[in-house]
Amino acid sequence: MLTIKNGEFVDELDRAINLRGINLGGSSKIPSNYSSTTNWQDSKTTTFVNRPFPVSEAPLHFRRIRACGYTIIRFIITWEAIEHAGPGMYDYEYIQYVKTILQIANEYKLQIYIDPHQDVWSRWTGGDGAPLWTLEKVGFDITNFRGCEAAICQETYGQGHSTAEQRNKEKKSLPKMIWPTNYFKLGAATMFTLFWAGERFAPNFTVDSDDGNYSKKVNIQTYLQQHYINAIAELLKHLNGLENIVGVGTMNEPSAGYINVDNLSKGFGQSGAASSGAGSKELKYGLAPTPFQGMCLGEGYAQLVGDYSNGIMQHVFGKPDHWISVDPMGKKAWKTESNGCIWKQAGVWQTNTKTNQPELLRPDYFAHVDFGTECYIPFAKEYANTMRSVWTSKTQELLIFVELPPLEFSSTPFPEISSSVLSSAVNATHWYDGVTLFTRSFKSHFSVNTHNHRPVFGYKNILKMHVSQLGEIKQLGKKKMDNAPTLIGETGIPYDMIEKLGTKMIRRKSKSIINFRDSSSQQLAAMNHTMICLEKNLLSFTLWNYTSDHSNNAGDVWNGEDLSIYSEDHKCGLDNTDPCYIYDGLRAARAFVRPYAQCITGTPVVNEFDMNKGEFQLIYRVNGIKYKVPSEIFVPKLWCSKKGAMKVSVSDGKFEVEENEDWYTVKHWHSSAVEDTVKIKLLQ
Fold first, then answer.
1. pLDDT of 31 strictly over 50
2. What span, in angstroms and rounded, lies between the C-alpha atoms of 433 and 492?
3. How many helical (H) and strand (E) elements, i.e. helices and strands, does the chain have?
4. Is cis: bond before 320, omega within 30 of 0?
5. For the chain, which end, N or C, has fewer CB atoms within 10 Å of the first or last residue's CB respectively?
6. What's the rounded Cα separation, in Å, for the pair 281 and 177?
7. What span, in angstroms and rounded, lies between the C-alpha atoms of 384 and 388?
8. Mutual angle of helices 459-480 and 522-536, in 10-degree steps
9. Can you tell me the distance from the alpha carbon of 397 to that of 388, in angstroms, rounded to the nearest whole number?
10. Distance of CA 464 to CAs 156, 382, 471, Å?
């Protein structure tokens, strides 16, 4: 059982819990029967069964995850996986598959929180999440998205107007990390705006209700939200009885779309912030039409659009590398049988009858709206009430994980979420070292502060900056969510850095441990840096991610990402009788498979591991509770293959070491001291 007390996670024995876990998995964003040769517009035959892996493979993967010291899984599902066939048509084969997988996870004592995942709305707008029929419902014609620059997808890359596409027509590979730019394109921006605020910004856009009363009309916002909520509730209802389900997320990194955009002709800058430069959170990479230009292109009007690279022109001068004339050549992003652009119908813009050219009427149409307070919180409250209404567990209250975007990429302020509005909530905001993520290179002596775009020199300053950023996220839970605990829902590193070939694990001949050929590899250093920053803030987290079918060629099997801690291609072929067999395939393992205190009979002060010295330290204050149980410290056999290879010292009380199949548990009982220290030196 997992509960919340005084801003901390606690177990049924009232011990403070440091939750460490993994996102499972990266390829769960796309169907298991997807391939580059299949018809990606065919949603009827789609299946997500075997995402994240076949049932037969589950025991080995779950054992490996537990051997890493992880006790919680952020389990990735999508709205599309449940309701891909059509409105109200649920995939019960997939739902049963998920239940079976999570039952096996329970056998390995892995707690689960369900993550309804999305990135830039859907696969057809460059990401994952929503079913195809949601786009069709609003009148979109996805076959013309690329020609109208309404979305950029792997399947259609090469058909657009950008300089890179025109120069390399034969090269169809989607550029790394270009997919987030879809948040600022017509397709995704329109869908999110309608989902969160259709009643406000498209009040006349109504559709037939699905409740059997075909004469009843509902606003598109109500329609989309109800289908989303009902689909997740349908899954959760079938998971009743699983003791390891501890919570559910509301939505992964929800986007505000056009909401609060200050001026539609100047970019996605928010009201009260800059439209470009350090004050703007708009990501520009490739063609970056303004919101108004995106609407015009969607109706077939040619536009002169800025084409950006991640170079000096954008980040120093705030200008595009090129200006490109984008002509849809008669194509429109809207179906011919629809009424055309929703925002034109709403009076945002019109076609000038004299010039026959588009004319912006209301540049501030979406401005001055607090997305978090006015849009997200009312939805989250209804969502949480519905989830808890179908959840019947009498032992585990359903925790609600608020999974907002990383602060450096969030375009809207973090809202005030009181416990009276959203009880038993968890701050699950995400954090990445943005410079390493986008450049795919870890530089220990130079970085950029992604909050103010200023350079940072020296490792001590970089560490201080990142520790501070995570500390700010933790404070959001305390100050903005009525002292809610924080679990960083996503964090991790890109593994497709240089030295890629140097990261495959090998065995040291003289010692039973897996190591890396190059202990100074960027991956190892970057992951260790991330872990240090998390530990300095005593944070719980779930790393992104574990992809069972990762390969060097396909990465995480989604948009060219390569963040999986595991890869079949990185195995060194250990036999299953080898004591290090379970770690085979892990990448930069020594950085994230590390000792830490999982359960603490007091208030933690320090819970840190020094990877370079092989030293762990736990300091905690006695909180007045008389515990009959010990604090428990996880020590992986990756670091300590034999019990005699660790030296344990305590400042007070007694300890014992318990051996498990893949790890040791150091148990410490404190006595009368106010503050206790446990140190573990790994001699191997």
1. yes
2. 8
3. 15, 30
4. no
5. N
6. 15
7. 6
8. 40
9. 8
10. 42, 39, 10
**Gyration radius of the chain's alpha carbons:** 25
101 CB-near residues (< 8 Å, 6+ apart) = 52, 55, 58
Rounded to whole angstroms, the Cα distance separating 35 from 38 reads 5
Contact 142, 130 (CB under 8 A): no
Q: How confident is the model at residue 552 (pLDDT cuts 50, 70, 90)?
A: very high
Cα pseudo-dihedral 55, 58, 60, 62, rounded to 10 = -170
Token pair recorded at residue 668: 């410490």
81 close to 94: Cβ distance less than 8 angstroms: yes
> What is the spatial distance between Cα 122 and Cα 112, in angstroms, rounded to a whole number?
24
| Distance from chain centroid for Cα 519 | 28
CA distances from 426 to 108, 398, 491, 597, 673 (A): 24, 11, 16, 21, 32
Q: Which of 50, 45, 127 lies closest to 89 in space, CA to CA?
A: 45
Residue written as token pair 């509770």? 625
Predicted confidence (pLDDT) per residue in 369-418, tens digit? 999 999 999 999 999 999 999 999 888 999 999 998 877 777 778 999 99
- Name the least confident of 280-289, 550-559, 596-605: 280-289
β-strands 487-488, 540-546 pairing: parallel
Beta bridge partners of 597: 633
Which residues, listed in sequence order, are joined to residue 617 by a DSSP beta bridge? 608, 679
- Scan for tokens 């803030």, then name that residue: 537
Q: Write a three-state SS string for 146-183.
A: CCCCCCCCCCCCCCCCCHHHHHCCCCCCCCCCCHHHHH
Write down how long the chain is: 684
Check if the beta carbon of residue 134 is closer than 8 Å to that of residue 122.
yes
